[in-house]
Write a structure and sequence with these properties.
The chain has 325 residues and is α+β, with helices and mostly antiparallel strands. The protein is built from nine helices and 14 strands. The chain has a five-stranded mixed sheet, covered by helices on one side.
C-alpha cells in the first residue's frame, strides 16, 4: 500500500471494577466500541517525520514515543523510515470516547504497515505505545470491536496490559444515544494519575458486586439480546462506579447537568444511561426507529439547551480498526 488508511471505532467505558494497594488486580473494566467517535488517518513515506490535520501535533508526539519505546524493546520500528501522517477525521480529545488510545494505536498500525511488518498483538501494542496501563478496553477494542471485558492489570512490576476476559458481539439494532453536554474536559495525563492516587480503595464488596453485574448481568443480557436486562445491569453498575468516583469528580457524574440529563433519559424510556469514563459524554440505549430518534434528539437539545452537534445516535462497532489503501 502506497498510502494506507486506517479507521478506528470509538470507545465507551462503562466502568472500572476494582483498585487499591491491596487489590490482587488493578482496575479491570467493561466497555463498548461504537461507530462514532473514532479516528481516521492515512500515511505515506516522506523525507521527514510530519503530520497534518486535526491533532497533528499529537501525532508527531506519538511518532516520537513509538520510536523511543521501540528502541527500548529492540523492535524494528526504532529505525523506521520517516513518514507523513494525515488525520482525516478525529473526535475531540478527553471527552470520554478514548480518542487518545485509538489515535496512538492507529499510528502504530500505520507505521507497521509502511515498514512491511505484521500487525502487533495487544501486548506488543501496549509496549510500543505505552497504552493499557489502566484500562484495556480501548486496546482490545481496537483489535476486535464489540463489548469488551478486561481482567485488570496484575500487581507485579513487570505485568503486561490487562488481558481480554470476554468479547461479545453487540446487537447492532440497538440504538445508542451520545450526548456531550458543555463542561470541562475529562481528566487525563498527570491530572488523571493524581486523581487515581487520591481515590480511596474500592471495597472488596463493591468489586464483588460490580463483577457480578458484568458476569451475570451485562454479558448474558447482550448474548440473549435482552435490552431491558442489559439496561438494568448497566444502570446499577454506573451508580456503583459513580459513587466510587464522587470524591474526585464532585458527584456521581461530572456535572449537575449530566445527572439531570441521565435522569431524563430514563424518564423518556431509554435504558442503561450513564457517563463514559470521566465524561462529559453520556450514553443511553434503546431500540428505536428514525422518527423516534429524531424526536428524542430534538427534545433533548431544546430541553437542555444543547448545540446541534452535542446530541447524536450511533450503533455498536463489532469489528476493530480497519485498514485500506
Amino acid at each position: 500500500m502506497n498510502r494506507p488508511e486506517i479507521r478506528t471505532p470509538g470507545r465507551l467505558h462503562f466502568g472500572l471494577l476494582g483498585w487499591g494497594p491491596d487489590a490482587p488486580r488493578q482496575f479491570g473494566g467493561v466497555g463498548l466500541m461504537v461507530e462514532s467517535g473514532g479516528i481516521r488517518i492515512a500515511g505515506e513515506r516522506a523525507p521527514e517525520w510530519s503530520a497534518a490535520g486535526p491533532l497533528a501535533s499529537r501525532v508527531l508526539a506519538i511518532l516520537r514515543e513509538i520510536r523511543q519505546l521501540a528502541a527500548i524493546a529492540s523492535h524494528p520500528l526504532a529505525s523506521a523510515a520517516p513518514c507523513h501522517v494525515e488525520v482525516l477525521e478525529a473526535s475531540p480529545e478527553h471527552v470520554g470516547l478514548g480518542v487518545g488510545t485509538q489515535l496512538s494505536l492507529a499510528v502504530l498500525r500505520l507505521m507497521l504497515e509502511l515498514e512491511g511488518l505484521p500487525p502487533a498483538d495487544a501486548p506488543e501494542m501496549a509496549r510500543l505505545t505505552g497504552r493499557g496501563r489502566r484500562s484495556g478496553i480501548g486496546l482490545h477494542g481496537f483489535l476486535h470491536g464489540g463489548l469488551i471485558v478486561d481482567g485488570g492489570r496484575a500487581s507485579r512490576a513487570d505485568a503486561g496490559p490487562p488481558p481480554l476476559v470476554a468479547r461479545v458481539a453487540f446487537p447492532e439494532d440497538w440504538s445508542i444515544l451520545l450526548i456531550r453536554p458543555p463542561g470541562p474536559q475529562g481528566r487525563h495525563g498527570a491530572e488523571e494519575r493524581s486523581a487515581f492516587s487520591e481515590l480511596p480503595p474500592l471495597p472488596y464488596r463493591t468489586t464483588d458486586r460490580l463483577c457480578r453485574l458484568v458476569l451475570l448481568g451485562l454479558v448474558p443480557a447482550v448474548l440473549e439480546r435482552d435490552l431491558a436486562a442489559f439496561g438494568e445491569a448497566l444502570s446499577d453498575l454506573q451508580r456503583e462506579v459513580g459513587r466510587a468516583f464522587a470524591p474526585s469528580q464532585g458527584g456521581t457524574y461530572a456535572s449537575p447537568q449530566a445527572e439531570a440529563i441521565v435522569e431524563e433519559l430514563g424518564r423518556i424510556g431509554l435504558v442503561g444511561a450513564g457517563q463514559t469514563s470521566w465524561g462529559p459524554t453520556l450514553y443511553a440505549f434503546g431500540r428505536l426507529g428514525e422518527r423516534d430518534r429524531e424526536r428524542i434528539g430534538s427534545s433533548l437539545r431544546l430541553g437542555f439547551q444543547l448545540s446541534p452537534s452535542a446530541v447524536s445516535w450511533t450503533t455498536a462497532a463489532n469489528r476493530g480498526a480497519a485498514i485500506a489503501g
